[in-house]
TrEMBL record:
GO terms for molecular function: signaling adaptor activity. It comes from the Bacteria. This is Internalin-like protein. Residues 1-19 form the signal peptide. Residues 345-408 form the Secretion system C-terminal sorting domain. Coiled coil: none annotated. Keywords: Leucine-rich repeat, Repeat, Signal. Gene3D superfamilies: Ribonuclease Inhibitor. InterPro entries: CDIRP (IPR052574), LRR_dom_sf (IPR032675), Secre_tail (IPR026444). It comes from Winogradskyella psychrotolerans RS-3.
């Protein structure tokens, strides 16, 4: 028997969402200096992003006492710093060991903009260039309590900047719609940063935007309402959007929709798609209480809607007559041999339903449209006179384990 497996791939594959790194460095100096005072070094950022660390090299062993790191805007150490951070004592055991201060706060750097870091260095010699070989900024040192520029000196240093993590959004129309929403694109640039996507907690409105791919929506882990109707979507994976409460994805071309991971969802309109599979068993079906909270109609190829076990959908739920509800659609959704090789007659029937098939018959199981088993038999001539009037599903199995589900009407 062919088994239809439903894979839940909760994959955090945001592709371009890993932060990259750029480093501003100057490592040409071979001389050493025993400053025992505050000193600073100007530098030019090589990318946009957040400052990760400031590092320079020791020329001797020793311990720099606990102190303060300051970051200034521009090639200067006067005025108010844009960032101040205390650092613990830093011990180095030999020459060329790094003296590094990791940044614990958020210091945003802008590409090609000049900044200066200042730190007090005592008890340790540090590596210097005495030829003023770095053109990106000036070295500063204190002189009688005043820090002054020393254009012929430069620290051997490294400044690391993490480039912003951005969400991979291949569909240009989807990306344009997100970038145009200031509540999402809070910094107003041309990308959606990972931090912007994660922080967003409202609704995303994408009606009639000619979107064919919603890759990138997985980054919006706290979105509560998604309105993406009237587009050209053929697939929709929302397994990572566990805060989602309302989904309107009607009037697309979606074939499979699995919302079992969306445990907060209580409103769905997925009508007018091309659904062949719909799993709404999210453990919250009882919360779909409004008259329009569940709409799955106009999906002619949808035969089974998977729901919570033990739940009976109210009459307000809207679906096609050809679709049934079940807590195990796998038992009803099989088509492993040629549909034309099996026939039912008469259909509709009032009493006896006959199965005609070329294969060796094994058994038949009849289900209500709610997915409840009502009859099982090993006979091809089935007495259904005791069934109520209406539409039923019959699952027919041959001796080789092939299974086919068909419909019949009891009059």
């Amino acid at each position: 028997m062919k088994t239809k497996l439903l894979l839940l791939l909760a994959v955090f594959s945001f592709l371009n969402m890993q932060a990259q790194q750029c480093t501003t460095s100057f490592n040409q100096g071979t001389g050493s200096l025993s400053p025992n005072y505050s000193c600073g070094q100007g530098f030019i950022a090589q990318c946009d992003g957040a400052l990760e660390y400031v590092q320079f090299l020791a020329a001797s062993a020793g311990t720099i006492p606990a102190g303060t790191l300051k970051i200034f805007s521009g090639n200067q150490v006067s005025g108010s710093p844009i960032y101040t951070q205390s650092h613990p004592a830093i011990t180095v055991s030999q020459a060329n060991d790094p003296i590094r201060v990791d940044i614990t706060g958020v210091v945003n750097m802008v590409n090609n903009v000049q900044y200066t870091f200042e730190i007090t260095i005592n008890n340790v010699d540090i590596l210097f260039d005495f030829a003023g070989g770095y053109s990106g900024g000036t070295f500063f040192q204190s002189d009688n309590g005043t820090i002054i520029p020393q254009p012929n000196f430069d620290l051997n240093f490294d400044v690391s900047i993490a480039e912003p993590c951005t969400v991979n959004i291949p569909d240009a129309n989807f990306k344009a719609a997100l970038v145009a929403q200031p509540t999402i694109n809070t910094n107003g640039n041309t990308e959606i940063e990972c931090s912007e996507a994660t922080a967003f907690t409202g609704q995303i409105y994408l009606y009639n935007e000619s979107i064919s791919d919603l890759t990138g929506i997985e980054a919006f882990v706290n979105v509560t309402n998604l309105y993406c109707a009237f587009n050209t979507l053929t697939s929709l994976d929302l397994s990572n959007n566990i805060a989602l409460e309302e989904l309107y994805c009607h009037s697309n071309a979606i074939t499979n929709l699995d919302l079992s991971a969306n445990t907060a969802l209580y409103k769905l309109n997925c009508s007018s798609n091309a659904l062949t599979s719909l799993n709404i068993a999210n453990g919250n079906n009882a919360s779909f209480t409004g008259s329009n909270d569940f709409i799955a109609s106009n999906n002619p190829n949808l035969t089974c809607i998977q729901i919570d076990a033990g739940f009976t959908p109210p009459t307000t739920w809207q679906k096609d007559a050809t679709a049934s509800y079940s807590d195990d659609c796998a038992a009803l959704s099989v088509d492993d041999f040629n549909i034309n090789s099996i026939s039912l007659h008469p259909n509709p029937t009032t009493s006896i339903l006959n199965i005609e098939m070329n294969q060796e018959f094994k058994q038949a199981t009849i289900y209500s449209v709610l997915g409840k088993e009502v009859l099982k038999t090993q006979h091809k001539n089935i007495d259904v006179s005791g069934l109520t009037k209406g539409l039923f599903l019959i699952k027919i199995e041959d001796e080789n384990g092939n299974v086919l589900t068909k419909r019949f009407i009891k009059q």
